[in-house]
Design goal:
- The chain is mainly α.
- The protein contains four helices and no strands.
- It is globular, with a radius of gyration of 15 Å.
- The N and C termini lie close together (11 Å).
- The relative contact order is 0.17.
Length: 114
């Protein structure tokens, strides 16, 4: 249960980091708005379609892990992009650890993690 809560918080943090990066990127307001709103919106769309526990198009494990890597890894990369490399590394390590624990739990018959 704690790992599922952590997974949800990681997902929210990734969206926040993508939004932050988007608004901090670009020279023009239109570009900042497009990236600041569009990047997290695209991440939500990918997640809801392919990685969410109740996704209608949920692929196999490799596909889910690919989407998680894109969205959650994108959040870590976004932190790096806004000038926080240590936070980016910490985020990446937490994502990998959380995903590993969720997969081990799933294989051992534990609760289904996001």
């Amino acid at each position: 249960m704690a790992n599922e809560l952590l997974a949800f918080l990681i997902e929210l943090a990734a969206l926040g980091a993508l939004c932050w990066w988007g608004f901090a990127t670009g020279d023009h307001l239109a570009v900042r708005l497009l990236l600041g709103l569009g990047t997290p919106a695209l991440a939500v769309l990918l997640w809801s379609q392919f990685a969410a526990p109740r996704a209608k198009r949920r692929p196999g494990l490799a596909g889910v892990l690919l989407v998680k890597a894109l969205v959650l890894g994108g959040g870590a990369a976004a932190l790096y992009g806004v000038g926080h490399p240590v936070a980016a590394v910490v985020a990446a390590v937490v994502v990998v650890g959380n995903t590993a624990v969720a997969e081990v739990s799933r294989r051992s018959g534990g609760a289904h993690a996001s």
